[in-house]
Amino acid sequence: MKHSDTDVIIAGGGLAGATLALALTRVAPALSVTVVEAFPLSADALPDSYQPSYDARSTALAWGSRLIFEELGLWHRISEHATPIQHIHVSDRGRFGATRLNAQEYEQRALGYVMDNRWMGLCLMRELLETKVQWQAPADVIDMTPCEQGVSVSLKIGNETSRLKAQCLIVADGGRSGLREKLGFQPSHHGYNQNALIANVSTSDSHEFTAFERFTEAGPMAMLPHGSPSRAGHESALVWTLNDQELKQVLAMSDSDKCLRLQERFGWRLGRFTRIGECNYYPLTLTTVAEPVRPGVALVGNAAHALHPVAGQGFNLALRGLMTLVEQFRLAAEQGRSPGDFQILRRYHELHSPDWQQTVQFSDSLIRIFGHSLAPVATARDAGLVGLDLLPSAKRLFARKAMGTGGRRAVINGPAASDKQ
């Protein structure tokens, strides 16, 4: 390889960027990695102990994502505050259609897990402190140009700018920084005319480690078990889909009125809603980039594809893509090739593309199918949910998608073994 300041620059040190950095140290340790992150980072800022906040934002991890974190040697830390999803209940609010998944049916301890984003980030930071990964923080990647060594990346550090040469730049800073567009990538956006309201809620009945996906006339609603990893509690993580007018109305309500509106929409499967925490929200848009790679640069995570949260597939899809990319980088290092070689990056895209296309289609089709209120369509989807619950083969396929074990997954230390079903 030609000389450069670092082999791989990762723009963004969030969950996707930090996971990628850690995976590269495990799978391709010959590569030097530099992470550029906009927020300041300090080992002194990491707490000695972690106390979960009621208002903490959370992420749903599929079983397949747990397997990846096990391979990276991180699961033992993450699992300390990972609430298992042992059951999934999918239903059409006010209608008879429903399907149920149970982890025991597939000889698994859980179908997935729910954990606070901050806890997952702290676990990644602690693990990365023990590696040779270099950090530029606070700093921003503001531009990139090709050069003899690969790419020359412009960094903004305070009021100063500097340049760093690398073999490859990975854009992992989400879709809102503008770096993706500045580098010439053309994302495609499809708005759903909906917003996701996110909050933690308490209910009179225990969640019994059950995740609920409720499709209502106003849009899908998810309720994920949250809190203790070992004792079924009364706290759930809510993802509530609302149009602009409804969102404005709900945000203006008192907490008690929010609980009443939520009760009306969700029903009584968790008993009475007794508390709702801090509400955050964001507009829902399906964003994809048809060609997320070019010589010396690749988009990953939300910078490459952002999904509707209806099926909780976003971060799990990103994680599988990261491992596919890491495996290609490992092969490149073994062959003495640059990780920014377009053939390497194009091969990554070819391998990951079927997974993200299927996942996008799966999530988008759920919105379209359950977004119709016409009686014939509603009757057909109710029959489909009942049929899914009764047909083992169809249900197994649905379970594999929910568990994140249907996509391509790179495995450390040897070829992938068949996922236990």
UniProtKB/TrEMBL annotation:
Give the species this sequence originates from: Marinobacter salexigens
Family annotation (Pfam families): FAD_binding_3 (PF01494)
Which top-level enzyme class is recorded in the Swiss-Prot or TrEMBL entry? oxidoreductase
Q: Name one GO molecular function term.
A: oxidoreductase activity
What this protein is called in its record is 2-octaprenyl-6-methoxyphenyl hydroxylase
The alphabetized UniProt keywords are: FAD, Flavoprotein, Monooxygenase, Oxidoreductase
Traced from the root, the source organism's taxonomic lineage reads: Bacteria, Pseudomonadati, Pseudomonadota, Gammaproteobacteria, Pseudomonadales
> According to its UniProt record, in which pathway does this protein act?
Cofactor biosynthesis; ubiquinone biosynthesis
Annotated FAD-binding domain residues: 5-363
Asked if the Swiss-Prot or TrEMBL record annotates the protein with the keyword Oxidoreductase, the reply is yes
Cofactor or coenzyme needed: FAD
Under Enzyme Commission nomenclature, its number is: 1.14.13.-
